[in-house]
Amino acid sequence: MPKASNDLNIKCKGTIMSLGQQQSARGVPCLRCKGTCLGFEPHSWRKICKSCRCSQEDHCLSSDLEDDRKIGRLLMDSKYSTLTARVKGGDGIRIYKRNRMIMTNPIATGKDPTFDTITYEWAPPGVTQKLGLQYMELIPKEKQPVTGTEGALYRRRQLMHQLPIYDQDPSRCRGLLENELKAMEEFVKQYKSEALGVGEVALPGQGGLPKEEGKQQEKPEGAETAAPTANGSIGDPSKEYVCELCKGVAPADSPVVYSDRAGYSKQWHPACFVCTKCSEPLVDLIYFWKDGAPWCGRHYCESLRPRCSGCDEIIFSEDYQRVEDLAWHRKHFVCEGCEQLLGGRAYIVTKGQLLCPTCSKSKRS
């Protein structure tokens, strides 16, 4: 796949939207509209662009620093806090220790050798470079997070989509009442304790081992070597390891993904470690465990509480509007065309879009 232009990468250096940051994101072009959008114009409460109606994700409104701060906040106060680092002078704030992988290959060109450098914006933590590269080769090429490619943009958009900042940080939500704030804080605390996880990359049979123990130790010449077969130990060479999703064989020399919440008797091919709801790869291997399967953050939260189809935030009020399998805050139950409140009025829901009869008619004509 051809590399994205430098211009595109520069334009993506925005910030994740918050109440006090809307002005800084104005004018960021839309990746979906390909030039027809005049630039991001924030809606007052929807997570969309008023100009083109596309989402914030389609405008790539994030930066490396904001992404790392968001994931740091998500993982702090959990058993995965070792993947974060304290920010100096940050009053307890932690940031994601994102593992990058840089590959430099010499290219012989006469007397002056040059170097081909490939940077992966993210790579599995705690693995050798060889295992990290093997892992990347098992991911679809268009989704490999190589700097300057569509794969890097895909990762950034998935960070926003699968792990919305407003699903974990009450200060990024709009107008939470005191009882809703307390309910959200408890909701976040509970999923960090009971569901949040980060996948581990290892060879079959080596999940859960301290990294230095995951390697075969040198043995004296002629000595016998027993291969332990218990979970979390070096695998039995005669044992066949099977992917939990596709049920295909996991070769002994090929990396797999483990989930500590699932137990180390289960493993997934790298391309098979996906959300059970949307079947999208779990960005940076961050998952939420529920009903015997991994979920992305977005769909996990939606499986427990309704999400407002208007503002995209989780609803913590017990008083909300529901139509079939869709939900809205009462104040957001408005026509997507003219924005008039539809409580007690006629409305039409088509393809997930809420419209008054007048706007629906004009849309069809």
UniProtKB/TrEMBL annotation:
<dbReference type="GO" id="GO:0008270">
    <property type="term" value="F:zinc ion binding"/>
</dbReference>
<protein>
    <submittedName>
        <fullName>LIM and cysteine rich domains 1</fullName>
    </submittedName>
</protein>
<dbReference type="InterPro" id="IPR047120">
    <property type="entry name" value="Pk/Esn/Tes"/>
</dbReference>
<dbReference type="GO" id="GO:0010611">
    <property type="term" value="P:regulation of cardiac muscle hypertrophy"/>
</dbReference>
<dbReference type="GO" id="GO:0005737">
    <property type="term" value="C:cytoplasm"/>
</dbReference>
<feature type="region of interest" description="Disordered">
    <location>
        <begin position="202"/>
        <end position="235"/>
    </location>
</feature>
<keyword id="KW-0963">Cytoplasm</keyword>
<feature type="domain" description="LIM zinc-binding">
    <location>
        <begin position="241"/>
        <end position="306"/>
    </location>
</feature>
<dbReference type="GO" id="GO:0070886">
    <property type="term" value="P:positive regulation of calcineurin-NFAT signaling cascade"/>
</dbReference>
<keyword id="KW-0479">Metal-binding</keyword>
<dbReference type="Pfam" id="PF00412">
    <property type="entry name" value="LIM"/>
</dbReference>
<feature type="compositionally biased region" description="Basic and acidic residues">
    <location>
        <begin position="210"/>
        <end position="222"/>
    </location>
</feature>
<dbReference type="InterPro" id="IPR010442">
    <property type="entry name" value="PET_domain"/>
</dbReference>
<dbReference type="GO" id="GO:0000122">
    <property type="term" value="P:negative regulation of transcription by RNA polymerase II"/>
</dbReference>
<feature type="domain" description="LIM zinc-binding">
    <location>
        <begin position="307"/>
        <end position="365"/>
    </location>
</feature>
<dbReference type="Pfam" id="PF06297">
    <property type="entry name" value="PET"/>
</dbReference>
<dbReference type="GO" id="GO:0003714">
    <property type="term" value="F:transcription corepressor activity"/>
</dbReference>
<dbReference type="InterPro" id="IPR033724">
    <property type="entry name" value="PET_testin"/>
</dbReference>
<feature type="domain" description="PET">
    <location>
        <begin position="101"/>
        <end position="208"/>
    </location>
</feature>
<keyword id="KW-0862">Zinc</keyword>
<keyword id="KW-0677">Repeat</keyword>
<dbReference type="GO" id="GO:0005634">
    <property type="term" value="C:nucleus"/>
</dbReference>
<keyword id="KW-0440">LIM domain</keyword>
<dbReference type="InterPro" id="IPR001781">
    <property type="entry name" value="Znf_LIM"/>
</dbReference>
